[in-house]
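quick one, 346 residues, struct below
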Amino acid sequence: MAAPHLILIALLTLLASGGAFATLTDRASAGRTAHPAPSPSAPEPTPAATGTPHHTPGEPPTSADFADIRTAPRAAPRPRNRRGASTGTFTSRCGRNTEGHRNPDNFIVAPGVANGAHHVHDYVGNLSTDAFSTDDSLRAADTTCTNGDKSTYFWPVLRDITATDDGADPDLNTGRVLTPARVTLTFRGNPTAKVTAMPEGLRAITGDARAFTNGGANARAQWTCTGFGDRVLTDRYPVCPGTSQVVRVLDFPSCWDGTGTDSANHRAHLVFPDRATGACPAGTKPVPQLRIRLAYDAPDAPGFALDSFPEQLHKPVTDHADFAAFLPPGLMERAVRCVNSGRHCG
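---
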């Protein structure tokens, strides 16, 4: 066995050489970027780990946001008409916004706030509509509608996102704005009762511009294609075959509380009828129900998208529309008579 003092000398020699090796390693590392050692704490959870997908505000739709209209669910049937139903229609003809009346305002939900909508709206009807519109300014303005209808009808634009931008947009909406090929504004009846006239200045909204993050409770828009109106999508854009056009269908609430022209949340004063029966809730009465139908010559999917708030990611479920009623009293009376008598006027 080696003497104890010899073992001690060997150990000291090893320690000295280890120190020299460490010194050489430090010198070799000089001039390189230092990287801190990993933190002993757990890393931040990734989107996949939490189940929450990662999204960049304003990012375009993906292929998952589109579906072949031929595989879409059948549209829910309209409630059966009962005794006393109002079965007629009245159509207001207001063009398709070839005038290019557009802005990112919404005087109903953000009055007096320029760019209060944070997405561009298409307008037909009243030619003066912007963030600062009032009842008086709307009454005094010109209109694109026939018969003197000064109502304002508006919705977020649809864009060709494969085309050159129509100018810088602070809210990350990009692409060329598509003018609708056809705009149809139809006031319909109620399957259980006669309708009553809307008051002048009645405000109405349908859908939810924040439905992607809010959930779909107030989502109402339907997407379809010409020739496929019996099939609809709500949370997907349609892939339309051949020369079929992309279609948006926006139905408005039509059960009025009989007092206000607006409410704090812009919904309580005018609500939807029961989905199954079409009857209005107690304490409300039916007014003519506005349906806006928009048809587009859109590029092939996924080359088009709605304008939206950046965090809503252009999702189709966020489609919505707004309306303020300024039909002259005589025209409103005519519309009510047509709807209640079962005629189709316009």
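Helices lie at 4-29, 47-50, 135-140, 211-214, 329-341.
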